[in-house]
Amino acid sequence: MPVIKVSKLVKSYGPTRALDGIDLEVDSGQVYGFIGPNGAGKSTTIRILLGLLRQDSGAVTLLGGDPWRDAVELHKRLAYVPSDVTLWPNLSGGEVIDLLARLRGSLNGQRRSELLDLFNLDPSKKCRTYSKGNRQKVILISALVSDVELLILDEPTSGLDPLMEEAFQHCVMKARAEGKTVFLSSHILAEVEKLCDRISIIKEGRIVEQGTLSELRYMRSTAISAECSGNIEGLRAIPGVHQLQIEGRRLNLTVDNAQLGPVLQYLAGSGITALQSAPPTLEELFMRYYSNQ
Amino acid sequence: MRANDYQATVRLLRLNLRQNRVFLACWAFIPGLLVMATAFTTIAMFPTRESLLGILPTLQDPMVVGIHGKVLDISVAGYTAWRTKVLCSLLAAIFSFVMVIRRTRRDEEEGRRELLGGVRVGRQAPLAAALLAALLVNIVMAGLILLGMLAAGLGFTGSLAHAASILACACFFTAAGAVLAQIFTSARTANVLSTILLVLLMAPHIGWNVKGSMGGVMYLSPLEWPFLIRAFAGERFEVLSIAVLMIGLLAFLALKLSARREYGAGFIPERTGRAEARSGFKSAWALSWRMQKGSFWFWLIFLALIGFMLGSVSQTLANISSTAPSLAGFVERLGGTDRAFMSLMIYEIALLIGIYPILALQQARSEESYLRADTLLALPVSRLRYYLSHLLFAFAGTAAIMATMGLTLGVGAAVATGDSGEFTRLLTETMVKIPAVWVVAGIASLLFGLIPRGMTGISFLVLGIFILLEFFYEQGAVSQALFSLSPFAQVYPTHPITALPVIGLLSASSLLVFLGGLAYQRRDVIS
């Protein structure tokens, strides 16, 4: 049974449609990447999953329950890291960690001190004096310190230095090894590429791409760079060719794998002298969705 | 000191004047309006010099002198200056330090100052601009006080002296607030210490009033300047030279300290907190207590003190109102002058306490707008529990504050008059106002559920309408039926205390709270 199941989810704020029919399915034990640029609807989706917002239409199931109706029961089984971390200015970091974990119902003292070491955080400072990165650490530790089935993380590493990002990735891998499910919203694509089993790309309130990383990459396209002695302008006419750049005899393109045959035939007929091909990186895929379509 | 340390000061000054405009308007207008209203009511109440002389024994009562000081000149002008000097000085002082701390240390804490540090802005410019902005608003305020007094036909020289002394007091607290903002790294600490400074100056103020001395160290306290300047009683403008000197020194000190410290640093560092929470710190209620307790204790202690002071002087104050012939019929209905005065005071204070539940619920609202409610509600904390954890302050907190005030008022009056019956009467009269304030709490709760973004504004508007309804009802401009729309009308002093209106108010506030909770559970959590 999926941990998160969302179908035809719609949410509007006045005249703007923030979510326009989202479908998602996250299975137990998966690390699920949810990527998209600012304002695409990532946080809105997550806030509906948490029962903070109510959808206009569509169905949402979280851990077998209704996130709006069963919020309190479900929240015992999950931990959430918000993207915009604001803490209570007059509490110390340690107090926030303890309060949130106790409210969730499980505070593991040993794990608490391990995490404080791992993230190198001084818990005795007042929250108003923490930097952005340290506030992020407080909330991350408060989420990781509890033993829960599901972690919902909304851009958890914005503001962390590379060392701390490494520590975070270590924690996510550990969570997966323990059989936990992680829902990770991010626009740090290298992180998603490294951690996630499945990925959804959201754009303007719609899911434009969904699947395992290999499905996304290999099903869809191949990046080709080549040198030809003949005329290569005809490539523009072949369907399925994207991001074609021609500089003299050199060319770069990505092509849908279904059209790989016609492209290679054309190149063979144009006096090809050099060829490189590779699956595109997640970044290229992402750019393709967002640049001009 | 180099000129480019002050680069862009004028631009920042304009920026400062564009922010918090409602706050700035209140600051500029309220003291002037207070003075003008006092002048006009004094003219109405004491049309002749004889009528003023008639209350001379009251004005010379040691208790009255203790609070307001000696009346230096028995005239409408002298009386007006005497009545308004302390209140206006206090108001202007509070506005001043709140503003200057907000534009210096708070901007620094919240990172806005950092943006300015990265552009062509001199390192001293933000502090200089904050000081100048406060000075400018204070000058406008003093100008309006002067205009108000002239409009009431009071003499120019005396009015000028009165306005200038209040201006000087306000500027002192501007500069003092600026110094504290340099020393401490938290705006909250700087504000608390400025308030403590004000309270510390109030204590000898009462002592000096009673002794009536006019010399020595008294000149160093800004709260004494409006007295020492002797408006309408042979003005002594030379007092202002001491004021200018002290203000100048403080402003210089603030600028010196600011030049010597780094961005974000102070001279007394923030205390660290607990590395681990206390074992009892584990509920939504414990969190709301941490967020609300400062304001709660402030209101409780402040009103307890007010209650005690008012109780102790109840007899003397009652004599003042007895001399107003125009109020005679009104007083008659209230059952005698002493009763009338205290009943009205309790009623007015209850209206002002109506502010507290609005502020308490605003905390619940600002947790949402700062997105901290997201973090909390993503835990196994229900909407209902979150709502109740703050509602508790709006209701139980209000009740505790009013009950404490009723107690100190009763004790004060019983001790002063030696009549223990006063204790029961005043306590009951205060307690019976609680349900009316709860209706204000109920309205704020409903708005929290229904129109969260407009909650604070609309709540204050409604409370303001209740206050105006009372004002115009007493003027005879508003009918009984219209006045009855205000919950406070149900517990108006002329009404006998009966169960029915109290039950009515209790049901109304319960209904409002219930509907507010219902609406909150159905709405989105919005920032």
Characterize this entry briefly:
The complex is a heterodimer of chains A (293) and B (527). With 293 residues, chain A is α/β, with parallel strands linked by helices.
Structural account:
The complex is a heterodimer of chains A (293) and B (527). By secondary structure, chain A is α/β, with parallel strands linked by helices. In chain A, helix 3 packs parallel to helix 5 and helix 4 runs antiparallel to helix 5. Chain A is elongated, with a radius of gyration of 22 Å. Chain B has 527 residues and is mostly helical. The mean pLDDT of chain B is 86. Chains A and B meet through helix 2 and helix 3 of A and helix 13 and helix 18 of B.
Strand content of chain B: under 5%
Q: How big a fraction of the residues of chain A is strand? A: 25-35%
Rg of chain B computed from alpha carbons, rounded to a whole number of angstroms:
25 Å
**Largest sheet descriptor of chain A:** 6 strands, mixed
**How many β-strand runs of chain B?**
0
The share of residues in helices of chain A is: 25-40%
Query: Rough shape of chain B?
Result: globular
For the largest beta sheet of chain A, what order do the strands appear in spatially? 5-6-7-3-8-9
Please give the oligomerization state of what you see.
heterodimer
Large-scale geometry of chain A:
elongated
